[in-house]
């Protein structure tokens, strides 16, 4: 049977038009069923402007919308008929196999947690970021859901991101690294040092500490960090890439010769932009919930949405959660051990 | 009287030749006195290859060298006659006004702490990183000296980096931001939230939380973070800039037309590289010690060393430490308040 994806069609900064375009593109190139969740009348009229008569795109009404700046917890408490809550409700009822949203990411996470709940063994579901590198993509987890973490949380992020990497990128034994500030195991903060000990004992293909400069070299498949560090990295990378292109553009615009050169080299710039475009993977998978979810960038284009729908369907088709549970079971003894909170040991290691 | 800078001439990955070249360049364009500290015979013969007959370059013998991978604490305990220890000993004796080293940065920090000690009010000296942006430079502190911090440490980093920014970049009221994962004061991890409360009460020109994507926009002059996050940012930026140029280069090399275009635009690329080159500021100032120090990148070129010597001399000439003490005195009531350790409150806020 064809997979069915729910799209929060009211989310994102670019409005429902962009969401509907993304859904139409996704339906067109696949056999997926897609439910657009949101204001049925508005979505219906946008859909009518497309020349798509696909019977695989459905409309599901939701009377409310969660704003980008709303408090996630207020949003899920007070707006029970929002497009994001409705999308996850469809998933809970088994009517769809995955949810994609470019809306308020905190509310998306909160809705997933409330309606689907956590996967067995998982203390903290998190968000995995997919970064382009000189070789293949690298998965970084967590990139924002959990800002204060304990070692066992980082260990679980490693397991979940490795399972995702296996399923999505077909890697048999993804190389898992712990993001730190020196390659030796003794380097890092207390959280990283304690986490390193757990990873060393695990059955993951753990390659030790990796540094920020390794992120884009492609020599590691999974980078583990807490959600504060991961989110800073995500936004710094975005900002730096934009600034680099901005500064280069300023320099090029200073001379006619350079502008001419740019025109000649333009195809290369376009290929480059495509290569580093976050839209290629569409969004960031939400891992550790009893279901499949993708959180997209607020600025997502239709292409990003199309790709996010593809990734969401691959997560469902290849049963990423079963793979996560398999990896957890390989380390079940270690998992029992870390059921004892490590916070106290971690904190006692903080020196003044 | 002319200022006198000690250069650890044995430090750095490129060998003493590069260090001596940097010193010759620095002496040539200024009235600075420079002491090259290290193997006197070797440095003497390198210096002889330069056509510089400057009487302002001196040789100070040190019989030992600290390797890049040595443990800082072992190094300062066991190698008392290393070039880095000798350089700081000269500073302690008042024979030089500042120290520049491209050697083992942990050992540089440890030597400074052991021989010069901490500045009054400073709990944790740290390292400030200087990043190029679309507008002016931004100072990020700490970028690696302190991986586990308390709110009062972050507050002190803010004061020290603001003083540096005043003195070096002539900013009257540098805009100080706290690196976090959302602009609202309520966003961030426990450390950032507690630090935010301190900054809000301070007399600094505190603009609130800033995000990684703001780093390169030039809308903030000082970014405060713990040394783990700062070091990750520093290395991620280096890695990303290299990867961006690498990927762009690969795309350009794929077609003859693009290669021709690149040749025409080459001047723009060169100006761009100069603009983002870490060598422009030479290195990272060590702030919070009773003296002036610059820690340079191990890969520092002669130009980077020359610039680091210039920055070190400006720190000494403009008495950055007096400015730090002035800023501390403006917030002395707040400083007394934070003398009570905030770690316990911070930790109790960590939820599971």
Structural commentary:
2 copies of one chain form a homodimer. An 11-stranded mixed sheet of chain A has the order 3-2-1-4-11-10-5-6-9-7-8, sandwiched between helices. Chain A has helices spanning 16-28, 40-49, 72-78, 83-92, 105-115, 151-169, 190-201, 227-252, 256-264, 266-276, 302-317, 320-330, 332-338, 343-348; strands at residues 4-8, 33-38, 57-61, 98-101, 126-131, 138-141, 175-180, 205-211, 222-224, 284-287, 293-295. In chain A, α1 crosses α2, α1 packs across α11 (302-317) and α6 crosses α12 (320-330). Chain A contains 14 helices and 11 strands. The first copy, chain A, is globular. Residues 342-352 of chain A have low confidence and may be disordered. Chain A has 2 domains: 1-117 and 289-318, Isopropylmalate Dehydrogenase (3-Layer(aba) Sandwich), CATH 3.40.718.10; 126-282 and 319-352, Isopropylmalate Dehydrogenase. The first copy, chain A, is α/β, with parallel strands linked by helices. Chains A and B meet through α8, α9 and α10 of A and α8, α9 and α10 of B.
- Tell me what portion of residues of chain A adopts beta-strand conformation: 15-25%
Overall tally of structural domains of chain A: 2
CATH architecture type of the largest domain in chain A = 3-Layer(aba) Sandwich
Corresponding CATH superfamily of the largest domain in chain A: Isopropylmalate Dehydrogenase
In total, the number of strands of chain A is: 11
Lateral arrangement of strands in the main beta sheet of chain A: 3-2-1-4-11-10-5-6-9-7-8
């Amino acid at each position: 049977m064809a997979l069915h994806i729910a799209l929060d069609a009211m989310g994102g900064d670019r409005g429902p038009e962009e969401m509907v375009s993304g859904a139409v593109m996704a339906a067109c190139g696949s056999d997926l069923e897609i439910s657009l969740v949101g204001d049925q009348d508005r979505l219906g009229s946008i859909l009518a402007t497309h020349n798509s008569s696909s019977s695989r795109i459905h409309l599901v009404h939701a009377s409310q919308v969660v704003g980008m700046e709303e408090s996630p917890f207020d949003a899920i408490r007070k707006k029970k008929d929002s497009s994001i809550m409705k999308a996850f409700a469809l998933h809970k009822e088994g009517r769809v196999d995955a949810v994609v949203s470019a809306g308020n990411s905190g509310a998306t996470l909160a809705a997933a947690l409330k309606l689907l709940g956590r996967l067995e063994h998982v203390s903290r579901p998190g968000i995995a970021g997919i970064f382009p590198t000189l070789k293949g993509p690298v998965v970084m987890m967590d990139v924002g859901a959990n800002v204060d973490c304990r070692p066992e949380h980082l260990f679980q992020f490693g397991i979940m991101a490795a399972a995702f990497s296996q399923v999505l990128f077909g890697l048999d034994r993804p190389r898992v690294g712990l993001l730190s500030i020196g390659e030796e195991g003794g380097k890092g903060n207390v959280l990283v040092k304690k986490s390193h000990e757990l990873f060393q004992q695990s059955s993951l293909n753990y390659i030790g500490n990796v540094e920020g400069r390794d992120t884009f070299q492609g020599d590691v498949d999974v980078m583990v960090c807490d959600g504060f560090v991961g989110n800073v990295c995500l936004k710094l990378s975005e900002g730096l890439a934009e600034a680099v292109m901005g500064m280069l553009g300023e320099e090029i615009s200073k001379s006619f010769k350079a502008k001419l050169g740019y025109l000649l080299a333009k195809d290369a710039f376009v290929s480059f932009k495509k290569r580093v475009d976050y839209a290629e993977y569409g969004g960031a998978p939400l891992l550790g919930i009893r279901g499949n979810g993708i959180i997209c960038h607020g600025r997502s284009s239709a292409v990003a949405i199309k790709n996010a729908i593809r990734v969401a369907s691959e997560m469902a088709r290849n049963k990423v959660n079963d793979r996560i549970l398999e990896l957890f079971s390989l380390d079940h003894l270690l998992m029992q051990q870390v059921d004892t909170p490590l916070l106290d040991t971690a904190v006692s290691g903080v020196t003044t």
